[in-house]
């Protein structure tokens, strides 16, 4: 897909990571560029919510089919942190757990293999002390309200996005200030989609509409409105980080992030499944 996107640059090829379009993160990135927090040092992300499993056994239950918090939510966070910092991860360390392997609807011979808890660390940007330290905690065993918090800390202050609102505090100030109040969502409520993702999706669709409306015939598109959208190259990077986190969870060691330059073995997942059954 990456090769095809390069071969046909006139076609619109973007990933659906909608958090980049959420106004709170658009504003956060602009403030980071303007130096609100000074030299960026730490990123901390917390996402808590109820189970991601469907009512019946399906792809959300299977790690090899793309289910679990790391694949469905963690991938969007990895992309978001790269967008905010302007850097990419070069080393990762992670832990994945499946606490709920069966429930009232998924039982018998069926077992859940997708993760419902994930914690990982990333070193982004330069090497040594110049790296930005990122920690991400995803916990989908918590009933109640959905928690989505992204905080960036620098040498002169911090910024934190809670849900769809953005707050900031500079060093020496008495308290944080509300920088963007985006709580007045007037669109439809979708029970299966948390508000930050829903609001980001709405903004992304509007940007796509503007991109095609820029040309009367609408057979081509303008780059400007969707310039912040992740490309297929970004998608490949995100998937590479996800795989490195999974390797780290198995090895217990820090793993390097190496972007693949050749197409993977199409039988890779099948071999993994056979090996797991053999063990």
Written overview of the protein:
- By secondary structure, the chain is α+β, with helices and mostly antiparallel strands.
- It has helices at residues 2-7, 23-34, 69-85, 195-213, 232-251, 268-278, and strands at 40-48, 89-97, 117-125, 131-139, 147-154, 157-162, 165-170, 177-180, 255-256.
- Helix 2 (23-34) runs parallel beside helix 3.
- The radius of gyration is 20 Å and the shape is globular.
- GO terms for molecular function: oxidoreductase activity.
- Belongs to the Gfo/Idh/MocA family.
Task: Give the tags.
30% helix, 279 residues, 9-stranded mixed sheet, alpha+beta
Number of DSSP strand runs: 9
**H/E order of the elements?**
HHEHEEEEEEEHHEH
| Average pLDDT for all residues | 86
Strand content: 15-25%
Q: In which range does the helix fraction lie? A: 25-40%
Q: Quick one: biggest sheet?
A: 9 strands, mixed
User: What's the end-to-end separation, in Å?
Assistant: 33 Å
Structural class: alpha+beta
How much is the radius of gyration in Å? 20 Å
Stretches with pLDDT under 50, minimum 5 residues: none
> Major sheet: order of its strands?
8-7-6-5-1-4-3-2-9
Approximate shape:
globular
Total of DSSP H or I helical runs spanning 4+ residues: 6
């Amino acid at each position: 897909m990456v090769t095809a996107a390069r071969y046909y640059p006139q076609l619109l090829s973007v990933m659906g990571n909608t958090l980049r379009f959420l106004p709170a993160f658009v504003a956060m990135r602009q403030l980071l560029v303007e130096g609100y927090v000074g030299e960026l040092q730490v990123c901390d992300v917390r996402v808590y919510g109820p189970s991601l499993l469907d009512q019946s056994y399906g792809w959300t239950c299977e790690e090899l089919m793309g289910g679990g918090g790391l694949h469905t939510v963690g991938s969007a966070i990895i992309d978001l942190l790269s967008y905010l910092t302007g850097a990419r991860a070069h080393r990762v360390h992670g832990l994945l757990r499946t606490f709920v392997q069966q429930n009232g609807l998924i039982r018998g011979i069926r077992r859940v293999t997708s993760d419902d808890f994930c914690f990982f660390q990333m070193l982004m940007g330069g090497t040594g002390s110049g790296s930005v330290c990122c920690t991400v905690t995803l916990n989908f065993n918590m009933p109640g309200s959905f928690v989505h918090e992204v905080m960036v800390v620098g040498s002169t202050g911090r910024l934190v996005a809670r849900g769809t609102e953005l707050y900031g505090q500079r060093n020496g100030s008495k308290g944080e200030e509300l920088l963007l109040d985006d709580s007045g969502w007037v669109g439809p409520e979708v029970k299966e989609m948390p508000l930050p993702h829903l609001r980001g999706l709405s903004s992304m669709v509007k940007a796509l509409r503007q991109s095609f409306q820029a040309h009367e015939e609408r057979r081509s598109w303008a780059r400007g409105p969707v310039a912040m959208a992740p490309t297929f190259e970004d998608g490949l990077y995100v998937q590479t980080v996800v795989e490195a986190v999974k390797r780290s969870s198995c090895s217990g060691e820090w793993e390097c992030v190496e972007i693949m330059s050749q197409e993977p073995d199409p039988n890779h997942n099948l071999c993994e499944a056979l090996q797991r059954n053999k063990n």
